Every structure is written in C-alpha cells, then in structure tokens.
Amino acid sequence: xxxxxxxxxxxxxxxxGLLLFLVASGLTLIFGIMxxxxxxxGSFYMLGAYMAFALTPLFGxxxxxxxxxxxxxxxxxxxxLEWAFFSYLYQRDHLQQVxxxxxxILVFEALRSMLVGNDVHGVKAPPWLxxxxxxxxxxxxxxxxxxxxxxxxxxxxxLYFVVNRTRLGMMIxxxxxxxxxxRGLGIDIRRLYRIVFAAGVALAALAGMIAAPxxxxxxxxxxxxxxxxxxxxxxxxxxxxxxxxxxxxLVGFVDTFGKVFFAELSGMGIxxxxxxxxxxxxxxxxxxxx
Amino acid sequence: MxxxxxxxxxxxxxxxxxxxxxxxxxxxxxxxxxxxxFSGTYNALGVAIENGxxxxxxxxxxxxxxxxxxxxxxxxxxxxxxxxDNVNKLIKRDNVDVIVGTVHSGVAMAMAKAAKESxxxxxxxxxxxxxxxxxxxxxxxxRSSFSNWQPAYAMGEVAGKQEKKKKAITITWKYAAGDESxxxxxxxxxxxxxxxxxxxxxxxxxxxxxxxxxEIAAAKPDAVYAFFAGGGAVKFVKDYxxxxxxxxxxxxxxxxxxxxxxDAQGAAAQGMLTTLHYADGLNxxxxxxxxxxxxxxxxxQPDVYAVQGYDAAQMLAIGLDAVKGDIxxxxxxxxxxxxxxxxxxxxxFSVGKSHNPVQDxxxxxxxxxxxxxxxxxxxxxxxxxxxxxx
Amino acid sequence: xxxxxxxxxxxxxxxxxxxxxxxxxxxxxYVADFVVxxxxxxxxxxxxxxxxxxxxxxxxxxxAFYGIGAYATVLGAGRDGGSIAWxxxxxxxxxxxYALVVGALSLRTRGVYFIMVTLAFAQMAFFVFHDTPFGxxxxxxxxxxxxxxxxxxxxxxxxxxxxxxxALACTYGLLALIRRxxxxxxxxxxxxxxxxxxxxxxxxYGYKLAAFVIAGALAGLAGFLVASxxxxxxxxxxxxxxxxEVLLMIILGGLGHLRGAVIGAVAFTLLKEVLSTHxxxxxxxxxWQLTLGLAIIAFVALLPKGLIGVAARLSPAxxxxxxxxxxxxxxxxxxxx
Lengths: 290, 390, 337
What we know:
The complex is a heterotrimer.
Chain A: H1 3-34, H2 41-59, H3 63-84, H4 94-116, E1 132-135, E2 139-142, H5 143-165, H6 167-177, H7 179-184, H8 189-211, H9 221-236, H10 241-261, H11 269-280
Antiparallel strand pairs in A: 1-2
Chain B: H1 3-25, E1 30-36, H2 43-59, E2 63-64, E3 67-75, H3 83-93, E4 98-100, H4 105-118, E5 121-124, E6 141-143, H5 149-162, E7 167-173, H6 176-191, E8 195-202, H7 210-219, E9 223-227, H8 230-242, E10 251-254, H9 262-265, E11 273-276, H10 285-298, H11 304-322, H12 330-339, E12 342-344, E13 347-351, E14 357-367, E15 370-381
Parallel strand pairs in B: 1-3, 1-4, 4-5, 5-6, 7-8, 7-9, 9-10, 10-11
Antiparallel strand pairs in B: 2-3, 11-14, 12-13, 13-14, 14-15
Helix pairs in contact in B: 2-11, 3-4, 5-6, 11-12
Chain C: H1 2-23, H2 29-54, H3 63-77, H4 84-106, H5 111-131, E1 141-142, E2 148-149, E3 152-153, H6 157-180, H7 182-192, H8 194-199, H9 204-230, E4 232-233, H10 240-253, H11 258-275, H12 278-281, H13 288-302, H14 306-314, H15 316-325
Antiparallel strand pairs in C: 1-4, 2-3
Helix pairs in contact in C: 1-15, 2-6, 2-9, 2-10, 2-11, 3-4, 3-5, 3-9, 4-9, 6-7, 6-9, 7-9, 10-11, 10-14, 14-15
C-alpha cells in the first residue's frame, strides 16, 4: 500500500469513526447520566435517516435548515418519549430496561413499516455539496463526506463545550457522579434527565440525517448501528464522551483497515479489539474505575 | 309430527342430499401454501411473486388442472431460524398440497429440507441458493427463477469475450448468495480468458464501501463485478460514481444491482451493463400481454419477481394437467414438468434434470429508469447442479 | 395444609412430564412438532435461568452457545451422520469451551458493561459462522443424516419427542439439584450481595465462571436437539434477537423459579403463534411485530414477577410454602458497582 492510498484510507477511517461518535455519544450520555440501557437507540438513528428522506423534498436546497429542523423535531420526540416511557425505567433493574427497550424496537420497526413502508430509499445531497474533488490521480473524494466529517467535529467540540463549560454541563456531570446529591441540592433532576435524553435522541437522529445521503435509508439500519455503538461505549467507558470519541476513531480504523487486510475476518475485528481492551482495562479506556 | 312438518322435513332432507351429491362432483380444492416475506425488507418481492402467481391462476379461471386453488399464507419474515417451524405449519398443520416460496435463500434451504423429507411439492419462485437444486435436489422440488450462478456466469462471459476485459476485481457482501455469484462470474470470466485478481468482501449488511473503493482505485483493474441487492445496491452504485470510478473502470453485475433501484440510483447507474433472465423492452407478444394484464390487475409495473411467481403457477398447472389434478401421482407430476417447455414472459424455458430453469440470460443496459435489453448474453444456460444426485 | 402445597410444588413438574409422555402417541404430527420445539426452548430458557435467575448475571448473548451447540452437531455429523454418543458431548463441549472464553473475559465487567459485552461476543460468534467458510456461510448448512445411537435414530418422530422430553426432565432435575446444593446457595448469595460473599472468602469470580460455563453447556444441549430436529442450521440461531427472546421467556414466566423458565417458554411461543395467526386475531396478524412489541412492554411493566407472580397474587396462602423453597428476590438494581 503506497502512502497516497494509506492517507486516503485514514481519511475514510476518520470519517466513519466521527459519524459513529455522534451516535455513540448520545448512547453514552443516556447511559452515564441516567443509568438506563437503551436498546432502541439505533431506532433514533433510523428515525433521523427517514426524517432526512421525508424532509428533503420540503426543504430542497436549504440543507442546514433541514438539519436544524430535524434536530428540533427529534429533540421534541425525545422529550415526549422520556416523559411517556423512559422515566418509568429508572427505578427498574437493567434486565427490565433491556426487555422494555427491546419491545420498543419492535414497535418502532412496525410503525416505520406502517408509516413509510419497507422500501429502500436514497437521499440526495444538497446541490452545493454534490460532486467530488480529485485526490491526486487515485480517485475522487466526495465533498459531502468532507462536510460530514467537518460537521461531526464541530458537533463534538460543541458537546465538549456544553458539558465542560456550561451550567447545564456541570449539572450533567454532577448528576452522573451522584444523583441523590444533585437532587438534594435542589436541582430538578427530572427535567435534567428529560433534557439529556432529548439531547441523546437528537444526536443520534442528527447522525442519521447526516449519514442518509451516504448510506441508503432502509429497514433494519438501526440494528447494525446499535451493536457497534455498544462496542464503542464498552471500549471507551460508559459515561465518558472523550472515551466515546477515542473509541469511535479506534473502531473506525480497525473497521477500515480490517476490511483491507483481513477481508473475511473484518466483521470480527471490532470484537477482537473490544476483547483486547477488556483484558487490559475492564472499565473501558476512560471509564471510571469501580 | 304433523304431515305438514314431515313433508317439509323430507323435502329438506332430499334437497340436502342433492346438494351434497352435486357438491361431491367437484374435486376438493388444491391447497397452495404461500410462504413468502410479507413483512420486512423483501416485502415488495413477496407481494410481486404472490401477484404473479395469482394472476396466472385467475387467467385460468381460478383453477389449475381442474382444481380450484385455495391459498394459505405464512410470513417467513426472511428469518432462517424460524423457517423450519413456518414451513411445518404449512405441511403439518394446514396440510397443503403445494408450497410456493421463498425469496431469502437461507429460508428456502430449510424449506427444501422439509419438503424433501415430507415429499410435498415445493416450487421456489426466487431464492437462488445453488444448494436447492444442488445437494438438496429432489423430484418434488422445482425452481421457477434462477440459480445465483447463472446470471453471474453470463456476465463473466460477456466481460471477457464481448467487453474484452482482462483483469477484474469482485466485490460483494460476505454471504452465500454473494459467494455463489462471484464464483459464477469467476468461472465465466476465466473461461473467456480473464483473471479475477482480487475478491473483496463487506460484512453483511454493512454498507461502508469507502475503504474498498479506495482499494479498487489503487489496484486499477479493467473491470469490477459487484453483487449487491436492495439498499446495498443503491449505495454501492452511488458511491462508485461519487468516487469517480465509473468513468475509468466499468462496473458490471447481475440484474439485482439495478433492479428496482434505478429511482434511487439516478444518474449514477446510467449506461451500466447487467445480466439477468428478464429485462425491460423485450417486446415479445407474450411479455407484452403479461405486462398489460399485470398492470391492469395490480396497478403496478411487473418485475422479474412477478414473472417468477407467474411461471411458478404455470409449472404447477403443467404438472396438474398431466395428472388430471391428482397431485398424489408424484412421478408423473414431476416427469410432466421436466418434459415441458414453459411459455414465460421472459421467453421459453425448460427445467433441467435438477429442476432449475434452463434459460436465456439477457444483457441489459440502464437507460433512464429501465433496464433495456441489448442482447442475449448466453442462450439456454443451464446451472451445472453440482452435488445433485437425482 | 402448607406441607401439602409444598409437596404439590415439588411433584408438579414431574407430573407434567409424565402426563406429556402419556399423551404423546395421541398427538397429531403438527402438535407433537410444536411441543418438541417448546421443550427445546424450555431447555434453552432453563440454561439462562441458571445465569440470570440464580446468579444474577444478565447475559444478552446466550444464543451464541445455543447456536454453537447446533453447528457443532451438524459439522460433526458431516455427510454420513454420527453417533449421539460423541455428537452430544461435542455439542455441549464446544458450547462450554466458548462459554469459558467469553465468561473469562466478560466476568471482568459488571452491570451494564456485562450485558453489552455478552451481546458483543455473541455477535462475534455470529460473524464467524456467517462470514467464514468454516460454518458454511450465511445460508446455513444441512445435516444429511441425523444422529443415531444403536437402534435410537433421531430421524424418528418418537425418538425426537421422548428424547427431548427426557433431556428436559434431566436438565430440570440437574438445575433443581444445583439449587439445593452448596454451589447453588453460593450463587444465590452472589446474586444478593457480591461484596459480602467476597468478604466472606468466596472465590466469587470462580463461582460465576462455573455458572456461566454450565449454562453455556446446557444451551449447547438445546442446540444439539434443535439441529437434530430441523436438520438444518443457520447463523440466525445466534442472532441477538434470539438472545433477547430467551431473556423475555424467563422474565415472562417468572424470574427465580425453574418452573418460570418452562412456563415462560410455553407462554412466549404461544403468544407469538397467537399474534401471527389470522384465524385468531384477524387483520392484526399482519402487524404482529407491533402487537408483540407492545405485549412485551406491557408484560414487563405490569408483571415484573412474571406469570408466576400472577399466580402468587391469586392464591397467597398456597404459595407461601413454595416461596420459601423456590422463590428468591429479583436482582437488586440498587447494587450497582
């Protein structure tokens, strides 16, 4: 493999990893703050992709406006879902959470089938992002993928800023370490949870919207993303956003270069990575030691 | 009882007897079990197959071989783990005479096993797994569609002979259909003097192709053969074009790469060559009448799946006619279908010894939203049916 | 009065097994097939009950051992078939071996991590059988000749029925014995409060690993039986949906009771049948995914103690004695590391 190809593959790995980070950060946030294991998180990703499919005809060129609209809708949906369903899960043990969210996946899949059907759909990128640029003489790289990576970086920075430099972020971090103390300090923990959950849903949906022009929109797309996200969260450490970022990039690299060097075994690559991390640090790369 | 009542009772009894006698003249209904994906990703294919099958039965007045057809439907959910249970529902609970199904090869494998063991007639209207008419072949198992090997082999020949390509790279999902397709292409391509330099795989149903597209670009082959279907096909063709590879390295594939996906693929797919046993624009009287009838009945355009369903019904009819509706006469039933020439919208075909269609594979080119036929890639291609002991 | 109820509770499972054995010959082929399927799923559910109900380890990857047992059987049988005498130990052994590896690594984690890690390892097994030629690929592989042992041939419907019934009885009996043993008591202690057990000097990791491996081996037994019944295996046997469903079965029946696993397997299978049969629910049958999802949510939300919990509420006196011996409190959510 020559240097040029190697660099392009690195670009591919980073782009894939960053998108994964967006979905995984939502998952780890919900895990870390509320202690709820949510199998339906992949469905939020799917929701975002289908929203992109549904909203593109309405918004046409205004892609960024559509993204904002999608985020708002998803956050609203998350807010209501938390109030109606997830808030009842906090007192329950992990097993019940697993099973109830498993049932939720079935419900979402059925609703999707009834509302949008089972067909596969393509989503067009906005005209100002269409096309590609030449990477030397090797091949052309689509502008949209560059945009996706940039968007993910911006969002990651935004997330860092909110969690580490704002009051809300402070409350989130406090709530993650000690729920009862936070309540004792007079902070409305219920509303905090609702906001965090809505944010988690919005992040996953946003990832789906950004990914939609690159992947097609199809039934079952949530399931595959979910398991990879779990692996990312385990590797990175539950509740740690930085961990999720590092782990996502690691997974991106293992997946990309795995496909190139170990064709048949590439599906297993990330699990081997996870096993290796577990042997070394069972709580994840940046998880809290218990 | 009074005389009035007795008379009424006797009349009623007499009428009832006549009614039952009259009814007894009718042969019992033939139970056809449709085990197809009525939910999930392959739903549309299941519906198309069912429509095609029912269209043929309706054309024959609701009867095949003199027997009225009664349908029993089971949703196979494209889940191989539940396949044995689902097919047993049809065989043991509903006692069907014939099973028609399915789309997903893993499910079809389980169905073939159960059918072989129980002796129930099975007609496969899509699943291309080579094993169904290979090691699991049986006198009561038929296929009205194709084997994964067929269109792939034809494409290999075309790529080597007509297109004069020498080095090819194949790429597909890591699953049985992909493997069988790639092996078929390799056989045809190498026979035509070409060489497959690399075989790339993507875990199923992963659609992250960037890394492998980079590999293809770096390796600079003369041609790329890809096997994907549904969402994967849409994404791959679009990604291939987005990487600029469509201008430098032609992309070939079986018809599934561009069937039902042209709307979503748009400009990226234009001009692509694919091979399949059906195409748009055949313009034969048989095809035209089929297409018109289908569009009229279902308000949809038919596709290759509808044709396969239609032909499944034709094959069943041929067998039933030969045994005058008595499906118990298994040897005669099978022999009749083996001898027959089936007048299909795709052209005439027969089933080989292994009960897989021996048919013309068309070369098609994407033009707008259609896969227009531009020639015949291979005439009368038969699957080698490796492992079939019949 | 209390003693009578207790005795009844002990002998009820045995009575059911004998009743099943007696009416076997009168069942139609379809019903017999269905009962065999439910019995195999009961064995699968019981194996998970050992992990979740008795030891408090929530595994979302149990289907991996089920699938490995099934695949080992088919791969071992080859084209010519094989003897039960070595295929059965092969199936259980392969499943136990993978359980040893997965357990050794996963048990280093706890709580939510453990759940996710077990899921991931099951996916890894799935990919091995799905992607590599080793397992025959995504369409699965056939077993051309079913296992035999002298005159006993799994091709026969009767052998399947009574063989599976016997296996179920043995599994149930084994787990009941474990429960009453010191090993079982240690597991129960670990479930209730791991820290205390460790402080008391128990090698907690070792106990958990032992339970994990035994559970894996029993799941492998269920896999052997399902391969012998169907004659074809497929990587979907190891899909995480399968792991989720078996978890549902034991919570549906009632966690912490052996009968709960069996009841749950029966109830869940019947539930799926009913929800997808047009004759019973009409047009709703097409939306079975929706109704099943809602049913699952409703069951877990409203009946956290499962069907056995419902029975307990209906007849509190009769279950008191039974409670002391069988029932154990559900895993405590507050005990989080």
